[in-house]
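Q: I'm writing up a methods section and want to include an example of the input and output format. Could you take the sequence below and give the corresponding predicted structure tokens, formatted cleanly so I can copy it straight into the document?
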Amino acid sequence: MDDSGNTARSRLLTDQIQRVLDEGGIAALATIIEGSANVSAKLLVEPSGPSTGSLGDAALDDAVVRYATPFLESREEAKTFRISEFAPELPLWSATRVLFERIHPEPRLVICGAGHVGASLAKLASFVGYQATLVDDRPELVTREHFPEQRIELVSAASWAGAVIEAIGNGHGVSVAIVTRGHNEDEECLRAVMKTSPDYIGLIGSKRRTNIVLDRLRETGAEAQQLSKVRAPIGLDIGAVTPEEVALSILAEIIAERRGGKGGSLSAWRRANKSV
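A: Here is the clean output for your methods example:
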């Protein structure tokens, strides 16, 4: 194949990857990194859509397309496999190694409420690499004087519902933390979030406070399946007291959900095994 053909395929693949990112979607990029043929060949697989590129063999392409689904569900960023691990029916390719990479936009966190917890959460999320959007209906709280970090988008909401829905967008790669100042604001934000599809929804408050909000939505027609996705109270139990500690517990749960973590102690096994 001539260089012009290779350049055209490379440009097409790059354009498709950029489109996935611009649309807030996800995809798996498979690259042959070791084998007897077609090293460096690439195939971009989208969960619901056509694939782009080829690894040079139709049967191999089909096998990789099928395996892209469990890879994306694993939430790993990248992993290498031998073809024999997921397509033993292809003996000619069994020793070939393929690198799977997850293609997705940078994670975003929409925070409803710019009080002490919301402010701390926005700053912490920005620090660890999230694009944070901080929404509040009090303009004096969402200013660059308080938040000079450019990775924190500030939204002064004339309407909680409109601002929240716009901030979430298509929901891909988006987590939502509702940390407003009261029941009514919580309810308005959560009702808006129920119209979208973010990856994570959390609601701050005691069991009593969060039950009040969830019951109100249930009584006005919210589906049980939707409400079951809401983490309420939000966060992991780390004994948090200060706003900064509460923000840490919230972000820890969001990261665990995104990465597929369990949120437990990494050393629990050692304490359970007295002989170690």
